[in-house]
Amino acid sequence: MIELIFGARLSPEGELIWTSSELAIGLAVAAGLIAVAAATWSARRSGTRWVELLLLVPAVALVVAAAAGPVWVEESGHTEAPRTVVLIDDSRSMGILEDGEARHGQVAEALSAIPGEVDVYTFGRELQPGGPGTFDQGATDLAGALRSVSDRYVGEQLAGVSVITDGLDRGGLRDAWLEGSPAAELPIPELPGPLTLYQVGSGEQARDVAITGLETGGFAFLRQPFTITAKVSGQGFAGFEVPVTLTRDGKVIGAQSVTLDDEGLGEVWFQIKPDRVGRFSFEVSAPVWEGDAVPANNNMHVAVRVVRDRMRILQVCGAPSFDQKFLRLFLKQDPSVDLVSFFILRTNDDMNSGYDNDELSLIPFPYERLFDEQLWTFDVVIFQNFDYEPFFQHNSDLLLGNLAQFVRDEGHAFVMMGGDRSYDLGDYGISPLTDILPVMLNVPEPRISEAPFQPLLTDAGRVHPVTRLLGDPQENQGLWERLSPLDGLNLSAGLAPGSAALLNHPTELTASGAPMPALAVREVGLGRTMAIMGDSSWRWVMTEAAGGHGNQAYLRFWKNSLRWLIQDPEAQPVQIEASRENYRVGDTVRLVVQVRDVGFEPQEGAAVTGTIQGPGESVSFDALTDAFGEAIIEVPAGDRGSYRVSVSGSNAGFAVGSAATVFAVTERDPELDEVASDTRFLAALAAATSGKHYTPDDYGRPLTDAAAGRKVLDRVETPLWRAPGLLALAGLLLGLSWILRRRSGYR
């Protein structure tokens, strides 16, 4: 009968609860009282009013009760069988080779020792469901994994928690143990079941040679030796001699051997004397011997930035002059220049005149040492109205050939300035320097023009950084037109192949009918050369000085020239710079690309495209420069190794230039810092938790809690407010009350 009324079987152990709010219940009661009162008042003269009220009051009471939302709640439960959780170490150290086999091959054997159905998880930095894993994670946080299990199974007592690992924890638990913390103070979370540790690998068979660190100082100075110190370790190789090589951009530049001490440790030192500025990537490597546990740690990369301490310039003058004086003064006053200057020199005739050395006031000219032994220490060599023949006693072809090689093959710079002892007047047309000069020689007489002239800026000169003295093209053109005329120039046969004239004579022509160059530049092999076809550039000081502007035009000309000659990266229209040379795995590499016009003004909206080539696949990127002419690219530092970044810039569809740099990801993989499984740590952890520790040779069944299990609660709710029997009864009582009221003559 109860089931028929309420639509479900109700247990006497249940509980009645009201689901409506107190306000709703109060309003329902008030509405019911008002309805009963109204019915009573309207039927007060009827003889059947008590029968009507007897029917109405229970009906209204049922409606009010239904509005209160009565629900009959019954709770029961059952106990499920206990579960076992297995955690598998998924870090890279699980791939270390022992006797030629990766230690994670023992995971399957450990799993087979755990009976029944289990919940399997892998862990590295975080806990993940499923297994057995890929064994490539870069961290091992054992305490974090155990804490995640406790949170995931809160309120449930597990049959047991089993961990399959090599014990090389990087999350802090092992560090605390190594630092001597008592077992009771180790940061071990409370576990929902007994702990069993299955150790994979023993470390007894692991033999490993590794480069564990590199020290460079971060940067070096051009032509100043610096040292790269490499730390070498060799587990299982104590007393062995290990060869170590140093390469730069893939080319071997050094080799050393180190005998490892009783602990398998050693250091080697490489001294490098950089001959170029910029960033360079070095790699130190040791051989991979048979059975090497971790071949990936046998090399390490590092990037070193080479900066120019001071620009070293050799100025050789054939005779004193205003041009020599002004240039020497400018170079001496520049703090970034280390100047070696020779003028008023002894000639061969002076030395063969019969005088003793102490009777001559002039010093001997050490030309052989300068152009043979010491030549390579300079950045720029300037011949200023210098005739080599009276000074070079012998080997002139060899020494001038060294100068040509100094430019062409070594990437340095050479400047020849005019005068009555220069170019064809100095017989350079038959010297090895003809191969590197921007102009061709061997012109017939007359070989000079002595008439003053106002040089004309060429199309190339309008955009070239050497002659771009002002940023605005129109102002720059006007400045060149205002500068003082030059006194004359040395004639030439025209531009050499690959050269460009920046200034021309307004009327003089070459034999071929081309304008006569007054200032020309050339890129020769790795280096650069410049030819100034006169000896009166000092007059450019006068124009601005007369107007009260000092000698800025002359200074800017020579500063621009030197920056261009030495190929200063800051003088290039496109530049790229990494925020630092060396990064750790996972760091953010911030690359800043700058695009500027020939006047070094920033170019907004220039398109930048580039690639990053490293140990893996190359990464491409593109961007637009902002109002400061900069584009910023951020990429994550990936695998260890050397990376080369190449970029190019364009504006309005026209190429602006290109640049390149390097950086290195140098951090040694912490997961591979050690190769031996830590048996002692795992044994201590098992003891601290009253757990069990198995080594690879005696895997057994895990510890289990026989009383474990999980109580699952069942809750059944029966809404009485919609019980069909009660609703039908309320409707019947209301209907009878209404019929009786109608028969009594009331509505």
Furnish the topology, listing elements before pairings.
Blueprint: H1 2-6, E1 15-18, H2 22-42, H3 49-67, E2 70-80, E3 84-89, E4 97-98, E5 101-102, H4 107-112, E6 118-123, E7 127-129, H5 142-152, E8 160-165, H6 173-178, E9 195-199, E10 208-215, E11 219-221, E12 226-235, E13 241-248, E14 251-259, E15 265-272, E16 278-285, E17 299-307, E18 311-317, H7 322-333, E19 337-342, H8 348-351, H9 367-373, E20 380-384, H10 396-408, E21 413-417, E22 448-449, E23 456-457, H11 459-463, H12 473-482, E24 489-490, E25 499-509, E26 515-524, E27 527-532, H13 540-546, H14 552-565, E28 574-578, E29 582-583, E30 588-595, E31 607-613, E32 619-624, E33 630-636, E34 641-651, E35 654-665, H15 679-688, E36 692-694, E37 710-719, H16 724-743
Parallel strand pairs: 3-6, 3-8, 8-9, 9-36, 11-17, 18-19, 18-20, 20-21, 21-27, 29-35
Antiparallel strand pairs: 1-2, 2-37, 4-5, 6-7, 10-12, 12-15, 13-14, 13-16, 16-17, 22-24, 23-25, 25-26, 26-27, 28-30, 30-33, 31-32, 31-34, 34-35
Helix pairs in contact: 2-3, 3-16, 9-10, 13-14
